Amino acid sequence: MVRMRAILMVALVAFFATGCFEVEQSIELKRDMSGTANFKLGVDMEPMVIIMAKVQKEMSGDKSPLTAAEIAAAKADFKKNEKKSSTTTKEDPRKEAEGGLPPGVKLLDVSVAEKEFGVTTNMKFAFDKLSSLVGVKLGKKKEGEGPADPTKKSVIDTPFDGLEISETASTISIHTKPQNPADKVKSEAGEQGPPMDADTEKMMNDAFKNMRVAWKITAPFEVVSSNATRKEGNTLIWEYDFAKLQKLGSSKKGMDDMGVKVTYKK
User: Fold this and answer.
1) How far is residue 41 from each of residues 21, 90, 235, measured CA to CA in Å?
2) Fewer Cβ atoms within 10 A, N terminus or C terminus of the chain?
3) Considering the entire predicted model, what is its pTM?
4) What does the alpha-carbon distance between residue 100 and residue 160 come to, in Å, rounded to a whole number?
5) DSSP β-bridge partners for residue 173
């Protein structure tokens, strides 16, 4: 069972760069419902590095807690392997998004910042109408560039999926469900092998426990009602940790109570 767990964890690390996630979607609206949108995805591999070291230690028959020296050695080994696997020629990050843009959406900017144990990607889009964002799909190449690399999957390839907009004569309502990266990772784990045992699932949950997901909407309208976590000026902010995302996804009531919801007066 320990060996199966190790194989599963290695497969997930290689396939998804699984780690602790920071996800943020933000929208800035104009009165005509055009505007800009940002998508931020940060991946921190440090928790997974420690989990893998723990699994490897258990495989040797030692179930004692990791020492500071063992954690330091695991981190050093990860950095060494990352350096060996990196290439000198890096693909333009704009290609990750430009091929999957629907009509009415334009990619304005992409930036990629590498960290000690991870990477943060920021993308900025302009849209003619808010509903067009639903069709944004990452990782899709432009026509004529050949098929996308199936080994380069993203935990969130449709960052604005589920976005719903409804209007009446006097109001505009926006509703969406924050995406939980852990759901896709666990789904892939199920495809990689047998169902996870309780210990493996606990390890996965431990890797995600510091995950942060946020939604932000800035609009020049009066707020009639919203369930935002907090407000900064004209910006409404919804914030989720791993526990809150798990509760949100467990039932329709969770979605109704904790999903992103706001109604504006025109």
Assistant:
1) 7, 18, 20
2) N
3) 0.75
4) 12
5) 166, 263
More reliable by pLDDT, 197 or 118: 118
Q: How many domains does the chain have?
A: 1
Beta-carbon contacts of 252 under 8 Å, excluding residues fewer than 6 positions away, are none
Q: Which residues pair with 42 in a beta bridge?
A: 22, 120
10 Å CB burial of residue 25 (0-12, 13-18, 19+) is: buried
Q: Which residues contact 173 (CB under 8 A, 6 or more apart)?
A: 165, 166, 167, 261, 262, 263, 264
Residue 246 and residue 232: Cα distance in Å, rounded? 26
Does residue 193 have a pLDDT over 60?
no
Phi, psi of 37 (to 5 degrees): -135, 145
Pull the structure tokens for residue 4.
């199966």
**pLDDT tens digits along 121-132:** 999 999 999 999
- The number of angstroms, rounded, from the C-alpha of 57 to the middle of its chain's C-alpha atoms is 30
The distance of Cα 50 from the centroid of its chain, to the nearest Å, equals 21
Q: Provide the residue range defining the domain that includes 166.
A: 2-265
H or E element: which one contains 226?
strand 222-226
Alpha-carbon span 15 to 48, nearest angstrom = 13
Residue 43's beta-bridge partner residues?
21, 119
The 10s digit of each residue's pLDDT in 202-249 is 766 776 777 899 999 999 999 999 999 999 999 999 999 988 888 887
Residue 78, token pair as written in the block = 């990860």
Residue 16's pLDDT band (cuts 50, 70, 90) = very low
- Three-state secondary-structure class, residue 63: coil
In the predicted model, what is the mean pLDDT of the chain? 79
- In angstroms, the CA 156 to CA 23 distance is 9
